[in-house]
């Protein structure tokens, strides 16, 4: 942790602690160093799905550390960048949820259209079958009519032939 303090070349003044008891002052000064070190150490461990409150709390802590003379600019800059990305990710997640809803709606509509198409195909098959039955009946009637007309003509022919001159 002290390496982190040295890496960021911190030279805090702890002016707000001057009013405190000396024993408390030293403990609080060490606590501020530890807090700064812990905050910097946790930075690389932040994950995209971590709550935004973690970043906001860290930014608040930096403000407190800044009043004691810590140089928090680079850390604050990084946290603000992460916060900005997190905000964009949240918006993107919201957009994805909306798109997923639209996809589900489209899938449902597609399913309904496919069902309607299947029903129409079934009706078409039924109508085709009925049409074939009617065509068969029509052909049978035409053949019967033809046979009846042919029989009438044969009868007429035979009558005419048998009639004396």
Regions with pLDDT < 50 over 5+ consecutive residues? Answer: none
The proportion of residues in beta strands is under 5%
- Using DSSP, what is the number of strands? 0
Sheet with the most strands, sense and barrel status: none
Instruction: Calculate Rg over CA atoms.
Output: 47 Å
Give the structural class. Answer: mainly alpha
Task: Give an overview in words.
With 165 residues, the protein is mostly helical. The chain has a domain at 2-92. Helix content is 81%, strand content 0%. Helix 2 packs antiparallel against helix 3 and helix 3 (52-67) packs antiparallel against helix 4 (73-162). The longest helix has 90 residues, at 73-162. The termini are far apart.
Layout of helices and strands:
Layout (H helix, E strand, L loop, with lengths): L1 H6 L14 H21 L9 H16 L5 H90 L3
Helix pairs in contact: 2-3, 3-4
Keywords: Coiled coil, Growth regulation, Transport
What's a quick, concise take on this entry?
The protein is mostly helical. It contains 4 helices and no strands. It has a domain at 2-92.
Question: Keyphrases for this structure?
Answer:
165 residues, mainly alpha, transport, growth regulation
């Amino acid at each position: 942790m002290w390496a982190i303090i040295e890496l960021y070349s911190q030279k805090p003044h702890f002016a707000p602690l001057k009013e405190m008891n000396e024993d408390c002052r030293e403990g609080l000064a060490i606590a501020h160093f530890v807090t700064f070190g812990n905050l910097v150490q946790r930075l690389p461990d932040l994950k995209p799905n971590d709550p935004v409150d973690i970043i906001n709390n860290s930014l608040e802590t930096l403000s407190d550390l800044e009043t004691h003379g810590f140089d928090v600019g680079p850390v604050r800059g990084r946290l603000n960048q992460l916060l900005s990305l997190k905000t964009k990710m949240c918006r993107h997640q919201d957009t994805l949820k909306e798109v997923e809803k639209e996809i589900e709606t489209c899938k449902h509509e597609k399913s309904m259209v496919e069902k309607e198409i299947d029903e129409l195909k079934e009706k078409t098959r039924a109508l085709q079958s009925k049409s074939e039955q009617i065509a068969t009946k029509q052909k049978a009637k035409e053949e019967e009519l033809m046979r009846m007309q042919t029989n009438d003509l044969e009868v007429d022919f035979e009558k005419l032939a048998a009639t004396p001159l």
